[in-house]
């Protein structure tokens, strides 16, 4: 059986870890399967269609911005060979499965985790919508990084930063209830049992990092987990294991400001965590209480202070555009950002993708949105009950320019595009 895996095209490239895990799982259960992989950021439409046209099955992984691309490629494949069975999974189809069964392109949709579902599909399940079961990490082999051509993503990182960087997954699901996030309130990809977080054995995780570090000569690694420190004990155990095994490679996780203490940051520093991503979101107590993240200004200040105490850099992310946000709230965000001692700022405009509570509270509001033209940094449709989209973009532009010497790479591109 020939199976082609395709990772959707987006403005930015990142390693297709999900596809790497699915590829490993397929090989584990179907040793004679012939697999190939393509990523829209690197491979031409023509190359993908040519290879997929004689495949038995094509599997797409799709976010909302990349779904249109996946449908276009799927239809081109069908035009050449209508017998190819085409399956799509990922955040977008998990959020809106019925809408993702596109005539003339998509035969089948996977909702949730893909590894077990794909095995069922290869074994003959032809239900239009297949719900994947929650997987334990001990059921999964390491992601097949050779299959997903991980070296290409690492090379891009090296060209942009001078560092060889890749990512690892240590947990699945997120227990927090952020209204704008597909991993949060709705938990579309890892749903079931109240967004139960699956945590990977730290020994196995460190073993994979060591193996990949040696193979690709990594200078740095990140965690793909939406929130890395969902459990203090687990976070500390990873750091201790990394220290014990003398893995010196620096790393970057996304941190929740509520689940921290001094010992965690001390161990992170000893384990060579050089920087963290922190979802600050807003400086307005009113807005922070509405987000669903359960953080306060005091939590954020405490986390920043602890990180600075242990010389760990903080990349702070702010979101403009919660529904009840007004001019006064944004002024509070600006003054809060001024006071925080962080090394990098990111200012985004809220984009309630399918899968977020804000989308599913009123899906009709978004029926004409072209998600391929949006991302978390820019969109031309979202507004609050008090601020127009133009006003939000004006605020984003103002804050981006104010903090231009400490701004994220993508915010810098917005300034450059303006020129």
Task: Describe, in plain words, how this protein is organized in 3D.
α2 crosses α3 (64-80), α8 (202-216) crosses α9 (232-244) and α9 (232-244) packs parallel to α10 (262-270). The protein is globular, with a radius of gyration of 21 Å. It has two domains: 2-137, Cobalamin-binding domain (Rossmann fold), CATH 3.40.50; 223-418, 2-Layer Sandwich (Transcription Regulator spoIIAA), CATH 3.30.750.200. The relative contact order is 0.10. The mean pLDDT is 95. With 419 residues, it is of the alpha/beta class. α10 (262-270) links the parallel β12 and β13 (275-281). It starts with a strand and ends with a helix. Helices cover 39% and strands 16% of the residues. The strands form four sheets. A six-stranded parallel beta sheet has the order 2-1-3-4-5-6, sandwiched between helices. It has helices spanning 17-29, 45-52, 64-80, 91-95, 97-100, 115-122, 150-161, 202-216, 232-244, 262-270, 285-291, 297-309, 327-339, 357-360, 389-402, 409-418, and strands at 2-7, 34-39, 57-61, 85-89, 108-111, 129-131, 165-168, 171-172, 198-199, 220-223, 251-252, 254-255, 275-281, 313-320, 344-349.
